[in-house]
Specification:
The chain is of the alpha/beta class. The chain has helices at 25-38, 52-59, 85-92, 106-111, 117-133, 145-151, 153-165, 182-192, 212-221, 243-252, 254-257, 266-269, 272-282, 304-312, 339-348, 358-373, 381-391, 444-452, 460-463, 507-525, and strands at 3-4, 6-9, 42-46, 67-73, 97-103, 137-143, 170-175, 201-205, 226-229, 260-261, 300-301, 330-331, 400-412, 418-430, 433-441, 467-478, 481-491, 497-504. It binds zinc ion (ZN). The site of zinc ion (ZN) has 4 residues, from loops. Zinc ion binds next to loops.
Length: 530
């Protein structure tokens, strides 16, 4: 019999504190549904009563399997329950569970709450009792628990026990400042677990020493059975414990997998990379290429000798099978790669070629030459695929851009304000048809992109779902002159993502190359007729 670990997601509450993140009501509803479908046990929605969006969120009708949790303060010191509007709003909210945040560090009780240790304990007990009386499952987040424990173990424990003894389902130990180290977490949680059963203890770790994941796992080792965290480690400062790293670790590493089970099936785990990228997408952020388990580079290998070994026996170089988390192996093609690497990559993208085919040498030379000019094929998988298909003679000339013109103008507008306007005109030949499109954009590249994709005649239907999701520019010193490298990330209606590259001494020209590659790649993938 395996022990059950419970996962508590606070993306919508603590994650919403991330610098630059501002969830709308619609975002929150969509994210809650996505988290629920993934199989998380608890979803913390926010602060009903304290924040208008969250008040609205809790009053929306919803159908979730996860326990939808409201967050708020315990009763204010010196007030009665009936005289505390914050508690009243929290108890009113349509929530399955209520998570109270309570002080657990005597120093904070004195200085921040300006009350006595006894009154703080009474506030915890009263709040738990009131929420239970309303039929809610109760969690108590013991704020600054680890720092509080180091300052006064007795008082920190007294707070935790007050919550537990009053009937809180979970007493959550919070490393609010995020400065506690894994060996300290393991030791302190071990002590707490002598007084409170581990299946009532949760861990809430912040990432200020980059060990929120390690701290969460250390707490589990010491007895805690609930883990709080966020998707992609969102959260203020350096973020919260990243559930996207914790979940596969619990599922795939024998130390945890043999002892514990979680609410996420193997089949659902395969959606992990998609879940992580979808949240980035909603936040309009480029996914972290180097994110453990789910990043594009998480299973990417560059050097030639490693690559040939990986093809023979993947387990020799991969800590888990990338498919289990919805990722895939990537053998990077670059000037360092050898023929075996190249062959393996061609095979993966479905290009059949004989080992002794002379075109293979030509392709390898071409990659090396172009990388010397500044092209980065290991980052631009789609441009590599096009280069390979072109060298092997398999990319149709779908259309031809005969000319384009990009214009940037700064002038006074009708109300006398200085504005900068960009406009692009593109002349494209598709078959026997000549098409001219013009568009205005936020900048010259944006205008060019809009004009280019406005009308591709018979190919327009294939690129309707194409979206540019990221645009990165770098100035390089290739050879004697400075050149600009542009990387463009695109996505289509199926959620497939790809990256293309362009290099030139002119940024518009570099961008044009990358835009063209993206469109042509999409046409190839869609099987558009020549
Ligand atoms: Zn927190």
């Amino acid at each position: 019999m395996k022990e059950r670990l419970y996962l508590f997601d606070t993306t919508l509450r603590d994650g919403a504190q991330t610098n630059g993140v501002d969830f709308t009501l619609a975002d929150k509803v969509a994210i809650a549904q996505m988290l629920d479908a993934f199989g998380l046990d608890y979803i913390e929605g926010g602060y009903p009563g304290a924040n208008p969006t969250d008040t609205q969120l809790f009053s929306e009708p919803r159908k979730l399997d996860a326990r939808f949790t409201a967050f708020g303060m315990t009763r204010r010191p010196g007030r009665s329950l009936s005289n505390d509007p914050g508690i009243a709003a929290l108890l009113e909210a349509e929530a399955d569970a209520i998570c109270f945040v309570a002080k657990a560090w005597d120093y904070h009780v004195r200085v921040a709450l300006e009350t006595t240790p006894e009154e703080n304990l009474a506030s915890i007990r009263d709040s738990v009792r009131a929420a239970k009386a309303r039929g809610r499952e109760v969690l108590v987040d013991c704020e600054h628990f680890f720092d509080g424990y180091k300052a006064s173990a007795d008082y920190a424990l007294a707070c935790a026990r007050a919550a537990y003894e009053e009937g809180a389902r979970w007493v959550v130990l919070c490393d609010t400042n995020g400065g506690t180290l894994p060996h300290e977490v393991e030791a302190i949680v071990g002590e707490v677990a002598k007084k409170i059963p581990g299946d009532h203890i949760g861990i809430h770790a912040h990432n200020d020493t980059e060990q929120a994941v390690a701290n969460s796992l250390a707490a589990v080792r010491a007895g805690a059975r609930q883990i709080q965290g966020t998707i992609n480690g969102l959260g203020e400062r350096c973020g919260n414990a990243n559930l996207v790293s914790i979940i596969p670790t619990l599922k795939l590493k024998p130390e945890f997998a043999e002892k514990f089970e979680i609410g996420i099936s193997d089949a659902k785990l395969k959606n992990l990379a998609h879940l992580s990228h979808t949240l980035d997408e909603m936040l309009n952020r480029a996914p972290d290429r180097h994110a453990p388990y789910v990043g594009i580079s998480a299973f990417a290998t560059k050097a030639g000798i490693h690559a040939s070994a990986i093809v023979k026996e993947p387990a020799t170089y991969e800590h888990v099978d990338p498919e289990t988390v919805g990722n895939r192996r990537r053998l990077l093609v670059s000037d360092q790669s050898g023929r075996s690497n190249l062959l393996a990559e061609l095979e993966r993208i479905g290009i059949a070629v004989e080992k002794e085919d002379p075109r293979l040498v030509r392709l390898l030379d071409e990659v090396k030459e172009r990388e010397a000019l500044g092209y980065a094929y290991e980052a631009a998988d789609a441009s590599f695929e096009l280069l390979a298909r072109r060298t092997l003679g398999a990319v149709p000339d779908y259309f031809n851009v005969e000319r384009f013109d990009v214009n940037v103008e700064q002038r006074y507008n009708a109300v006398g304000k200085r504005v900068t306007v960009s406009m692009a005109v593109v002349k494209v030949k598709v078959g026997n048809e000549t098409l001219i499109s013009a568009a205005e954009g936020d900048g010259p590249v944006h205008a060019l992109d809009l004009a280019l994709r406005k009308d591709l005649g018979k190919y327009q239907q294939y690129i309707e779902g194409l979206d540019l999701t990221d645009y990165r520019v770098r100035i390089l010193n290739a050879g004697t002159e400075a050149v600009t490298r542009v990387l463009i990330e695109s996505q289509d209606e199926t959620g497939e993502r790809w990256t293309t590259v362009g290099v030139s001494s002119n940024i518009i020209d570099a961008s044009f190359q990358a835009l063209m590659d993206s469109i042509v790649y999409k046409l190839v993938r869609s099987g558009a007729p020549a």
